[in-house]
Design goal:
By secondary structure, the protein is mainly beta. The chain folds into 2 domains: 287 residues, no CATH class; 226 residues, no CATH class. The protein has an 11-stranded antiparallel beta sheet with strand order 15-14-13-18-21-22-25-26-29-30-31, with no helix packed on it. Strands 1, 4, 5, 6, 7, 8, 9, 10 and 11 form a 9-stranded antiparallel beta sheet that branches. A hairpin with a 6-residue loop joins strand 23 and strand 24. Helix 4 crosses helix 5. The longest helix is centred in the first third of the chain and has 13 residues.
Length: 562
């Protein structure tokens, strides 16, 4: 889609976050009117941080930023979605990745492309497990003067800020989301406990700052805390003094034994819950550091179409792809298999990665759940995969979504009622715009597809409440080159019905179509001829190949039910 929304400085409130005496050489990402609707947004004059009080309990400090939890940490604890908080809006997504995420501008409002909307939805949903990464990193930015507390009220430090400020909620969400993307994710420092300690020994006022990621031995339970000092306990033992956003107003200690090259830390979701011992050694690689400087530049967009001139064979925007991401929203586990039977995900209760070029990112949340969220899986962009959604570890039925997002597209199945011991299979063929869902259960999921089409309209489709009585397989393919959406019901067990919602996003307007209770006959191939649709209020033509022989046997018009 052509871009007519590029911001001039006169349309955007831009400020440089932090070229003050103690910030890194880069400024934090500019904040626009949507993501921070303030006037005269200018960083306050920040003096060099001073170590006004000694670090709790210690005199043998090897390094000390001067940060103190009772002043520079937040007064409220880590939170999920229980407070009805506001997470990312389109403004934060635009701020993170630039104008390329906008299908168009509606005044000053960025209207996200369909893949951008899907990415924002998945990211916001993941924050229900906790906002520790955002709180840990934002507290450092406020302390160093790279962001001003004036943006969120009149408090003189982070401890004086209140969570009921929507701008602060969105800011925490913004910095939480940086852990998902490059260069932030790519610049994470890993190593043995002693390696991590060596980096932290170099902390000093006005220098680089870090958040620490801690994980269980199996890589689960990711939590982010803020280191601010290192204390030598003698005999090769060191305490890393940290602000843990699950424990406001406290200094806590992560212990490293350089003799054994081990670490341990007692963590819990809040002080009223029995702490859980996190620990590791030189083999586990369960400590990491994220430099604050990596979060500051514009981040690389994982869902944008980067080259408007090139197309995949079916017309989808698939150019210069780096990877596709798979998200599970809900409980259960995934096992992803490629055409060579290489696996990624959970096999026999253990996380494996056998697929060349694939990886996973265990997001840091500080989750209140003992069933730790599934990682975000990254796959080579051209790879076709089969994904098993496994409910065998569930205690109760879980509403589950599975989504793949790549450059210029999104494919997903939403609203699966995943039962204990249920195993469903989803096939993704991203280059063909194809998703196939197979189940032995009676399900009514939503199949969702989004496409960004440079130079043309963008589309988002929802095949809602697909009635799969007795189970079966339903395959949906977006043939963007011919402007058709194909629904293959060849392997449905019984006749079903579905509702269709179509959204078309142009440079000028959003248009939508909705129809209820469209019949799906077992063995039929349905062509939704969206390219013939003339816009709001107009009917949509469907072609039906009743026996799957490649010939349309019936064509009829469905009226808009809106």
């Amino acid at each position: 889609m052509s871009r007519k929304m590029l911001f001039g400085l006169g349309l955007t409130i831009v400020f440089m976050l932090g070229l003050v005496s103690c910030g890194p050489d880069e400024a934090a990402a500019p904040v626009d009117e949507e993501s921070t609707p303030l006037v005269d947004v200018v960083p306050t004059e920040a003096a060099q941080p001073e170590i006004s009080t000694p670090a709790a309990g210690g005199e043998n400090l090897v390094s000390d930023l001067g940060f103190r939890p009772e002043q520079n940490g937040f007064s409220f604890p880590n939170y999920g979605d229980e407070n009805g908080v506001q997470n990312l809006t389109s403004g934060e997504v635009q701020r993170m990745f630039g104008d390329q995420v906008c299908a168009r501008m509606d005044g000053d409002q960025c209207v996200l492309t369909p893949p951008g909307s899907q990415w924002m939805e998945q990211t916001n949903s993941a924050m229900s497990g906790g906002h520790c990464e955002g709180m840990a990193s934002l507290s450092l930015l406020l302390y160093s003067g790279q962001l001003s507390t004036d943006l969120f009220g009149s408090a003189s430090n982070a401890f004086g800020l209140q969570l009921d400020d929507e701008k602060l909620q969105r800011e925490i969400a913004y910095w939480w989301a940086t852990q998902e993307v490059a260069p932030t994710q790519a610049d994470v420092i890993t190593g043995t406990p002693s390696d991590i300690l060596d980096v932290l020994k170099g902390m000093k006022p006005c220098g680089e700052t870090y958040t620490i990621g801690i994980y269980k031995r199996d890589g689960s339970g990711g939590h982010a805390i803020t280191p601010f000092a290192v204390e030598d306990q003698g005999g090769g033992l060191f305490d890393v003094l940290v602000y843990d956003n699950n424990y406001p107003n406290e200094t806590r200690r992560l212990k490293i034994d350089t003799n054994q090259n081990t670490w341990q830390y007692e963590a819990s979701i809040n002080p009223d819950v029995e702490p859980d011992l996190y620990e590791g050694d030189s083999e586990t690689q369960t400590l990491d550091l994220t430099p604050t400087s990596a979060r500051l530049p514009q981040q690389s967009c994982p869902f944008c179409s980067e080259n408007p001139t090139a197309k995949a064979g079916n017309g989808l925007a698939q150019t210069a792809q780096r990877f596709n991401e798979i998200y599970l929203d809900g409980e259960g586990h995934l096992l992803i298999t490629d055409d060579s039977n290489n696996r990624l995900g959970f096999a026999d209760g253990k996380l494996v990665n056998e697929i060349p070029g694939a990886s996973y990112n265990q997001l840091k949340m500080g989750s209140a759940s003992t069933d730790y969220p599934e990682p975000v899986y990254r796959l080579p962009a051209a790879l076709n995969v089969s994904v098993v959604i496994d409910g065998s570890t569930l205690k109760n039925v879980s509403s589950t979504d599975l989504v793949m997002i790549g450059n210029g597209f999104s494919l997903g199945v939403e609203g699966i009622s995943l039962d204990t011991n249920q195993k469903d299979t989803v096939i993704f063929q991203p280059a063909d715009g194809l998703i196939s869902y197979d189940t032995d259960s009676s399900e009514s999921p939503n199949i969702v597809l989004g496409v960004e089409q440079p130079g043309k309209a963008d589309y988002y489709f929802e095949i809602q409440g697909t009635d799969m009585q007795g189970g079966g397989t339903i395959t949906v393919q977006l043939d963007a080159a011919n402007s058709n959406l194909l629904i293959n019901t060849e392997k449905l067990t019984n006749e079903g019905k579905f509702s269709l919602v179509l959204t078309r996003i142009t440079d000028q307007v959003d248009e939508s179509f909705s129809a209820d209770e469209i019949v799906l006959k077992a063995g039929a191939l349905v062509y939704i001829e969206y390219g013939k649709w003339e816009g709001n209020g107009q009917g949509l033509y469907l072609g039906v190949d009743t026996n799957g022989d490649g010939t349309i046997d019936d064509e009829y018009e469905v009226t808009d039910s809106q």
